[in-house]
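Hi everyone,

Forwarding the result from last night's run.
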Amino acid sequence: MHAMQYELTLPADYDTGIIRARVARIGHLLDDWEGLGLKAYLLRERGQFGSPVNQYAPFYLWNTMEGMNTFLWGGAFQGLSNDFGRPSVRQWSGVAYEEGRAAGSPARFAVRGDGLVPEGVELAEVMGDAARETERLAGEEGAVLAAAAVDTSRWEFVHFSLWEHDAPKAEGDVFQVLHTSAPGRERLARGRQW
């Protein structure tokens, strides 16, 4: 599993209806994308659910590097770049993935929490803790799925979870889920990724 996200932080007075309409118009285009485990089309709106900003920030879980690279280099990502400018794309190596207790339910909210991998620690222990946290989150009422990944260039973790309700039991930035494309979700490897 490989995780990826880009963020488009929009002006405070931006009409987020434009993003909603865009996702309604084109979101289905990745519903059968080869190599994609899951894409969650995420939106934060200033003043809602604790958000200080308007932000469009899709989050991806990839089954294959070829699928991700085809998305980035094959033209699909170019449309977003043409419309909004080319954003920085964050990438993380997978640590763990679990289906949640509400796995069959549509996701309404997502939570993305970040953290640093401390210096001077045993990496196997820290990654094991991240895998256990993923399992804990997935076991919470309302959890659709949970994942953890790490950016080894910055030694930063990301914990990502999807929820069926607006009271997620995870810490981090809360996003509304506008659409989910999940052509290869059933092929995402469960548990720890090493």
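The first helix runs from residue 17 to 26.

Cheers,
N.
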